[in-house]
């Protein structure tokens, strides 16, 4: 395991904020102090979560194996459950099927979320049943493994929100109160980043920039990332705007604050700019996007404020808009609920991979 003193981001143990574990006020205060400093400086940190969510080493290995199993399926099986334009992102994303910029993102992904019953009518545009591959194509416990992982990640995210509340001088339930039923619209995404030579032979058009994931800030409340050991691809921009590698560390997640949280705290919590670069190795990454409640109102800031001008939430990321023409949305623009706005954001990054074919 890496020397913690040499890590590019701090390592914080939030297990004292697990509701089922007894911990002293001194322990919680120490964690809160570390967290406040990390959020103000980096907006990201390595997370140790102890037994929260039952995400043991064995559970993490199982979910990585499940991800590998899915991405090894024949294309015709994966393509039967495609993500479609419209903002409800469940199912398979092929290479070239999504991008936060004009670059081709050389990855494929599988997106799923809350186990919404097929018999229950969704209450908003971000709720609904998951899209799973045919049961005969995967191992017997494949879906259960992913569903248990989702439930565990929700519990970890809830512990982080409690810790963040205390870190910013509020009651432990302050931030959780903004995330009630946020688990029903949150997303888990399994990413498979292709090595350079695979991307070159994928049939993508030769022209145009390529990257693993375009530089962006995340739109929601929190993002938790479980990285594959032995392969570094994630990078975060430091306070000088330089890209720094964020290597995987066994037994940890990477947590970064989202734009919504940054806006709620008027920039006190930083929403970090980050990206994924490719190499000669393939890479798996499991990413959980934790959202506030669908009806949450987006805190607005002046257009030229440092926070509002740098976050992706207020940038048009649609394919028809070049990066040079992207405009920060006016704070006077009418914005509905967080859920409505996020559905539109997912539509902005949807791409037709056929448009990249040579």
Fold and architecture overview:
There is one protein chain. This protein has helices spanning 25-41, 57-71, 75-78, 142-167, 196-200, 259-264, 306-310, 338-349, and strands at 11-13, 44-48, 91-93, 104-105, 107-113, 187-193, 210-211, 213-216, 222-227, 234-237, 243-245, 253-257, 274-276, 283-290. By secondary structure, the chain is α+β, with helices and mostly antiparallel strands. The protein has a single domain, classed as Jelly Rolls (Sandwich). The chain has an 8-stranded mixed sheet. Strands 8-13-10-11 form a 4-stranded antiparallel sheet, with no helix packed on it. Helix 2 (57-71) crosses helix 4 (142-167). The longest helix is centred in the middle third of the chain and has 26 residues, at 142-167. The N and C termini lie far apart (43 Å).
């Amino acid at each position: 395991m890496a020397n913690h003193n040499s890590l590019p981001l701090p390592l914080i143990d939030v297990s004292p904020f697990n509701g089922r574990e007894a911990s002293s006020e001194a322990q919680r205060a120490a964690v809160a102090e570390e967290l406040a400093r990390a959020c103000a400086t980096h907006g990201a940190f390595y997370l140790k979560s102890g037994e929260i969510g039952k995400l043991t080493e064995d559970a993490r290995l199982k979910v990585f194996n499940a991800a590998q199993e899915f991405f090894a399926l024949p294309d015709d099986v994966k393509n039967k459950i495609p993500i479609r334009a419209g903002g409800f992102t469940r199912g398979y994303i092929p290479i070239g099927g999504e991008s936060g910029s004009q670059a081709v993102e050389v990855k494929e992904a599988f997106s799923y979320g809350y186990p919404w019953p097929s018999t229950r009518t969704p209450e908003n545009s971000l709720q609904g049943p998951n899209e799973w591959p045919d049961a005969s194509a995967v191992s017997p416990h494949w879906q259960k493994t992913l569903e248990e992982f989702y439930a565990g990640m929700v519990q970890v995210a809830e512990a982080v929100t409690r810790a963040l509340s205390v870190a910013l001088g509020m009651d432990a339930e302050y931030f959780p109160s903004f995330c009630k039923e946020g688990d029903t619209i949150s997303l888990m995404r399994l990413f498979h980043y292709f090595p350079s030579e695979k991307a070159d032979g994928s049939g993508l058009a030769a022209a145009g920039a390529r990257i693993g994931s375009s530089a962006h800030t995340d739109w929601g409340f929190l993002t938790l990332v479980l990285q594959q050991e032995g392969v570094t691809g994630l990078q975060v921009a430091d306070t000088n705007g330089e890209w720094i590698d964020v290597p995987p560390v066994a037994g940890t997640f990477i947590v970064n604050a989202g734009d919504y949280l940054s806006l709620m705290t008027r920039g006190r919590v930083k929403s970090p700019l980050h990206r994924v670069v490719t190499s000669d190795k393939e890479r798996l990454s499991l990413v959980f996007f934790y959202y506030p409640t669908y009806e949450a109102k987006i805190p607005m800031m002046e257009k030229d404020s440092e926070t509002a001008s740098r976050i992706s939430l207020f940038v048009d990321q649609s394919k028809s808009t070049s990066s040079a023409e992207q405009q920060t949305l006016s704070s006077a623009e009418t914005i509905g609920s967080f859920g409505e706005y996020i559905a539109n954001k997912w539509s902005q990054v949807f791409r037709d991979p056929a448009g990249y074919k040579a």
